[in-house]
Fold:
Amino acid sequence: MSWNRALKACCDLYAESKLATKWIVVGSVGSVLQHASMSPNDLDIYVRDIEDVEQITGLLDRYNLKEKSERSYFDSDWHSSDEEPYFTQSFSSGFTWTKAKWKIQDFDVEVVQISNSAGIPDSDEGEGIWEGGRYIWDLIKHVEFENHLVPVVPLEIQLESNIRRKRQDRVDAILNALVLYGYNKELLAKALSGPSKVSSEAVAALLDENK
Structure:
């Protein structure tokens, strides 16, 4: 699978660099690394601070386009270039992110830093932990991959994100992985919002206090 090669290329470069950048794999690759059965379309990496974007774009600049992309930032074919390695974009809601994107080993890789969540619910006390929010940095899970320890968002949190997005295919894949490979019930209870906890019998079964 090409996501494997793309992730290995990123991990190898990061290990060689000796950087101490705070980064984490989210989305479908993060799920697959934790045994969820999915077919990733891209590799999503979140970083904590804007300075981290600068460090990672410098690390991956060998994959830059030589000339600035003529594509819009909204276009999925926009990619980082030597002239414009990343961009910052704000939406009408106020949501603001800084983003870089490359084609690595024929697979799309995105690095994102979110500076304004525009009020997206993010709480460990009932509203649900958001996969792109502040709590993920204290809840990082490390997964072995190609002689590297890759930081990922735990599946318990990814379950909440995909229930919110109504991605039932991914919800089912995550639930199956949690059942087969185990899970942290305390984290699951914190990660899920009230509506998510009662969204299905399968979710309720994982939270069952008698289990």
User: Anything to note?
Assistant: Residues 2-17 form the longest helix (16 residues). The two ends are 37 Å apart (CA to CA). The chain is about 35% helix and 20% strand.
